[in-house]
Amino acid sequence: MSLPLLARPGLAQPSTNIFRVVTSQEINGLDPARSGYVFTRMQVVETLLGADDGGLPVPQLARAWTLSEDRLTWRFSLRQGGRFHDGMPVTAEAVVACLGRAREQAGLLGNLPLASIAAESGAVLIRTSRPFTPLLAFLAHYSTGILAPAAFEGQAVRAIIGSGPYKLSRLLAPQRLEAERSEHWVGPAPAIARLSYLAAGRGETRAAMAEGGQAELVAQLAPETVERLRRNPRLAIDIRAIPRTRLIKLNCNLPLFRDLRARRALSLALDRQGMATALLRSPASAATQIFPPAMAEWHVPELPPLRRHVAEARRLLAELGWQPGAEGILQRDGQPFSFTLRTFSDRPELPGLATAMQAQLREAGIDMRVAIVNSGEIPAGHRDGTLEAALMARNFSLVPDPLGTLLQDYGPNGGDWGAMGWSSAALQDVLDKLGTTSDPAERAALRGRASTILHEELPVIPVSWFDLATAVSKRVAGLTVDPLELSFRVASAQWAG
């Protein structure tokens, strides 16, 4: 599908009553596990719970919930009068069927200590095999989105029939969808009746669409375009630190990266401050550890900061038998220290960062080739074992409690967007205890220990923290940006004037 013709900046655009969202993320199918992040952010599909800006649970399909005295049984009461977009009532049985399906898939719910999910007297009962404090946050993840029974053919999703304030009216995957106000929505009717979504991979394309008045909300702006867009009187630019980190994923099964000293050497060769300043236009975003200060409960100020020290990197590699060879590239047993790093252009700053890192690593005698690929080739390479390294951005708030992402990424088998060929019994013990305890002091100590283990072992190498830059048209009033990136919040906005 071709993108719309870009307007020349500064020209007035035809008026429209469609709220247009533009991001980089494609629609990779109908299944909530694959593309639920689009359908939930567009408020077409709901989860049992949502989360506020601080990550605390708020009602969605569930209007209330309780926990039994033994802390094993959660009971969720559903919103009264809720209906799917086909007019059928939202029942506990329909919710249970979707959650059970999500549990059986390889993914989020399958990693949890769930004993049963059942419907009882119009409520949803979830029993765990042991106390699991952060369950509510997991039920806000897009993969647990609830669809109507008519959306399925067997276990396959054939249509998106949700229960949100907007219903899907047109889908042109992988780039576009259109939605309109649902007549079956029981909450306050959204002031904005129609909206559309477009996936535009190039950062400059997205910026031009914001500049030319071809979108009301443009997410994931490239750093080099932000200052230009700030000068546009028709736009409001929102920039905020969010729980996301750019990092290098390493295949620790490879002899190159199996030894911790090699991973430390790679980290020491990186000029994070220079990249944050010159490429990201945000010196404060240089990562000193994996979790940014915006994640105050996980950020540990006392950790020794990640830094650049090329001489120390060379010393560590020499300990491992690496010696200078042809053209300054280190060699061991006749083989060069050489690998391929995969990255993608959906996040426009990543290729530039990869090119800068390529030059920095060469100063330490490391030959890193850069391959610009589709983002899906990173998890695919994890699963088939062909991935050597990847530069990516990891969101720690898709489950509003970061524990959800850590369980996905750093379990015994690693994760598509986390560790590869590395595991830690100590870290697993910490994560298990975090799921069990509700004592604030104990949880704080455990979070600090988890951060420290990742900092010391470097199964992934942090590069920079993330500033989310969003352009919002001044044609719109009352729109707030979700720092957890769970929703575009269009239903609570209105047209200005």
Q: CA-to-CA gap between the ends?
A: 34 Å
Q: Overall mean pLDDT score? A: 93
Strand tally, please? 23
Number of helices: 14
Helix content: 25-40%
Describe this structure in words.
This protein is α+β, with helices and mostly antiparallel strands. The protein contains 14 helices and 23 strands. It has helices at about 30-40, 90-105, 135-140, 205-210, 225-230, 255-260, 260-270, 270-280, 310-320, 350-365, 375-385, 405-410, 425-435, 440-455, and strands at about 20-25, 50, 55-60, 60-65, 75-80, 115-120, 125-130, 150-155, 155, 165-170, 175-180, 195-200, 215-220, 235-250, 325, 330, 335, 340-345, 365-370, 390-395, 460-475, 475, 495. The protein starts with 17 loop residues before the first strand and ends with a strand. Residues about 1-15 have low confidence and may be disordered.
List the helices and strands and how they pair.
Elements (H helix, E strand, L loop, with lengths): L17 E6 L8 H10 L7 E3 L5 E3 L2 E6 L5 E6 L13 H13 L9 E7 L2 E6 L6 H4 L13 E2 L2 E2 L8 E7 L3 E6 L12 E6 L3 H9 L5 E2 L4 H8 L4 E16 L4 H4 L1 H9 L3 H7 L31 H10 L3 E2 L5 E3 L2 E2 L1 E6 L5 H15 L3 E6 L4 H8 L4 E7 L7 H7 L15 H12 L3 H18 L2 E14 L2 E2 L16 E2 L2
Parallel strand pairs: 1-12, 1-13, 18-19, 18-20
Antiparallel strand pairs: 2-3, 4-5, 5-7, 6-7, 8-9, 10-11, 11-12, 13-21, 14-20, 14-21, 15-16, 16-17, 22-23
Give a summary of the structure in a few sentences:
The chain has helices at residues 32-41, 92-104, 135-138, 203-211, 223-230, 255-258, 260-268, 272-278, 310-319, 349-363, 377-384, 403-409, 425-436, 440-457, and strands at residues 18-23, 49-51, 57-59, 62-67, 73-78, 114-120, 123-128, 152-153, 156-157, 166-172, 176-181, 194-199, 217-218, 235-250, 323-324, 330-332, 335-336, 338-343, 367-372, 389-395, 460-473, 476-477, 494-495.
